Amino acid sequence: MEELRSRLADINALRAASSMMEWDQQTYMPPGGAEARSEHLGRLSKLAHELFTSDETLRLIEESKPGAAGDDADMLRVVSRDAYLATKLPTELVEEKSRLAAVAHEEWVKARKENDFKGFASTLERMFDIARQEAELLGYTKERYDALLDLYEEGATAADARVMFEALKEQVELVHAIAELPEVDDSILYGNWSIPAQKEFTEFLVKSIGFDMQRGRQDTAPHPFCSGWSRGDVRLTTRYGSYLPGSIFGSLHEAGHGMYEQGTPAKWDLTPLAGGVSLGLHESQSRTWENLVGRSLGFWEHFFPSMAGYFPELSGLTAKEFYRLVNKVKRSFIRTEADELTYNLHVMTRFEIESDILDGRLAVKDLPEAWNAKYQAYLGITPETDSVGCLQDVHWSMGSIGYFPTYSMGNLLSYQIWAKLENDLGDSQELIQAGRFEPILGWLQEKIYTKARQLKPKDLVLEVTGKPMGAEDYLRGLGKKYRELYEL
């Protein structure tokens, strides 16, 4: 077992080096470094993949299984699944994808800035070709999407996603009903906000809710994300712009991911058991801290006085008025800045488009038209440019195809887990209003974060909430919130 641990530590170090280079590319690397970074990432990915899928590693895994118990048995289950999936993919394809992703990211940044989808289309088409190859190599029962979604959410299928989105379409009616009401004027939230003030305030918020800045930091990136290489080094990024809540909720969202990573037990750090169990569970935590905590009235009753000190332009508002403004339902184009009610419609659009491209029902060159048509159907608006349309997300440039449904799974799970949390802790708004986040974070650490990858995602959901993932708690909670806000 010790020989296997040593080998897995080598693999972890190679992957951590790659991840750190990817973080650097999105935060500090000069554009001219893209070609060399592509070469470096390609080689590191190749080395890690070859070492993980080598006959020696597979032999050590099998020889370690007899008699394994406790943490060792859990780790072997996780690493066996990871190795099984990895051996399905040839090293050449893994290396090619890594190289392409490094180049594609810079092309995407440029295309988004210049509203040039055509300039990015050929690279995107190649990335979808790689995704098709991955799906065929991994294998699936019904459709290619199943193989890719399973990489991010073990056991989930495209059929599960469609059932989920069918339930969430109930939100379309409420979105359109609110759209018929007089629009809430949130123009005060737009302006030339001080970047140093945004930086200080967002860091103040994430530290206040429990993100440990001694084991993490926050930087900026074109698209906010969270990366980590150990429980002692977790990096958040956010984006500062003319819409002030964008940076605030972007930071809270990524801090939710970050606190999950920081919650890994020390004994599992740098092992296959470390980190979040799935992207759906991970997203449930980012959405919990962004929405259930951060968009609550109690949160702003506690923090608004401090916020007005950072941004005097808002001092004429009350906490309740600000709460209403940041929960405004607005049929907007940008997913990361969408309100809770419309958010899943953004995700549904992406899921339907990428599954259509994978199965040949839609060509990449026709993606902008399909995107705009779905935005018109689901949200009643049409993007004026591809920059705020099909070019707004970084995921496809990274090759993260099959990822998007986990965002909506996270939304459902956030409410389902929160219902159990409130059953155990009582009125969460009293805690939040008092700025007492320790009981909330402590409960989540005990029930979810310290489990890391020990359980399968569906088993963890059952253990924490007593039932499989479903839309009931989410639709009930969100419907109540917005009907009260808009007096419907």
The class by helix and strand makeup works out as mainly alpha
How is the biggest beta sheet arranged? 3 strands, mixed
Domain tally = 2
Helix content: 55-70%
Number of alpha- plus pi-helical segments = 22
- CATH third-tier fold name of the largest domain: Neurolysin, domain 3
User: Per CATH, which architecture of the largest domain?
Assistant: Orthogonal Bundle
Order of helices and strands: HHHHHHHHHHEEEHHHHHHHHHHHH
Mean pLDDT: 95
The first-to-last residue Cα distance is 61 Å
Globally, the shape reads globular
Tell me how many strands there are. Answer: 3
Instruction: State the name of the first-level CATH class of the largest domain.
Output: Mainly Alpha
Main sheet: which strands, in order across? 1-3-2
Report the radius of gyration as a whole number of Å: 22 Å
Taken as a percent bin, the fraction of beta residues is under 5%
Detail the poorly predicted runs.
none
Q: What does this protein look like?
A:
With 488 residues, this protein is mainly α. The chain folds into 2 domains: 2-114, no CATH class; 160-485, Neurolysin, domain 3 (Orthogonal Bundle), CATH 1.10.1370. The chain is 65% helix and 3% strand. It contains 22 helices and 3 strands. It has helices spanning 2-27, 34-52, 55-64, 70-87, 91-114, 117-138, 144-152, 158-168, 170-179, 195-209, 244-262, 279-293, 297-310, 319-326, 340-358, 367-379, 395-398, 405-425, 428-433, 438-447, 457-465, 472-485, and strands spanning 216-220, 226-230, 233-238. Strands 1-3-2 form a 3-stranded mixed beta sheet, sandwiched between helices. α18 crosses α22 (472-485). The chain is globular and about 65 Å long. The mean pLDDT is 95.
